[in-house]
Amino acid sequence: MQASEKRAWVEIDLGALQRNAAAIAHRARAPLLPMIKADAYGLGALPVARVLEPLEPWGYGVATILEGLELRAAGITRPVIVFTPLSLEELSDVRAAGLTPSLSRTESISRWAAEGGGPWHLSIDTGMNRAGVQWDEVDELRDAIAHCPPEGAYTHFHSAELNDGSIDRQEVRFQEALARLPERPSILHAENSAAVARRDGSGWGCVRPGIFLYGVGSGDGAQLNPEPVVYIRARVIDLRRVRDGETVSYDATYRAVGDRTIATLGVGYADGYPRALSNRGCAMLGGRRVPVAGVVTMDMTMVDVTDAPCALGDVATVIGSDAGLDVAAVAWTAGMSPYELLTGLRGRISRVYRSDGVRT
Ligand SMILES: *Cc1c(COP(=O)(O)O)cnc(C)c1O
Questions:
Q1: Which of 77, 330, 341, 342 has the fewest beta carbons under 10 Å from its own?
Q2: Out of 41, 60, 231, 250, which one is annotated catalytic?
């Protein structure tokens, strides 16, 4: 199906994505460990991995075994780290799939060793309090680690986009934990996008950017901003005049004041266009900003186009910096984070990849 026949699509600028990755690697002066979990934040893990391959990343980060399997099935041979805690039973699947587990408990490390060992990364919690061994409790793992030393160790910052000194405090804890290990693992990593964008040069062995690659910057303190990557377009699939006093969409939350022209766009919350944008969001159509009229429905969203030139089949931009509607701004309007908005894009809305400027 051609883009010209689609009701809505996500346009992904792979050239910009690749340049963002190169820019962050350059700033970090360290190899990349790109986070392509959750299907590369909704953009498609395989096309994203393929466009990152020429940059020769150290490896890739995923959240689940299935995500890793998808990369292996597609012929990606670099290390793939599964970043969420795994059950003992899952370890054999990780091994069979040729993935690298992230471990932090004696039982898991011993099981991994007993089943044959191999590369694994030690997850150290320095304040996120989500996963990993507490930084001041790594001693409890000493025996298991001495028997089967990790290839790498890492921590994760909880507030890298805030300028609150927490990165420094977490790094002190990380250093403390590393000093207590029988030996220093050969690769250490900590920085997510916001942490890299904030500092000149990585403090560690490789960096783990996610959202920056996908075109979302980390706000005020950032010294490096990404090129936009994601655009969402939706076609006008119906169009009507609505008389003064008539209402639009469910629950009649929009009432026409004077006669209005209402266009129906072929995108709804089942595509990932947030319902929270009901009566709040806007789209760009024919060079004009047009407000969402009424409640966003599952498959369709109405916009008031009274002041914009509009015909059936026209294409509106509902997300896209070319329309002043960047992902972060739209997300915050919807009361969501940009991460949530991107990962909420559903399989139903097709992805259209632009490859101009991609280096192979
Ligand atoms: C998701 C994730 C990242 C990437 O974070 P961004 O803010 O998207 O750069 C890095 N490290 C870990 C452990 C993660 O889970």
A1: 77
A2: 250
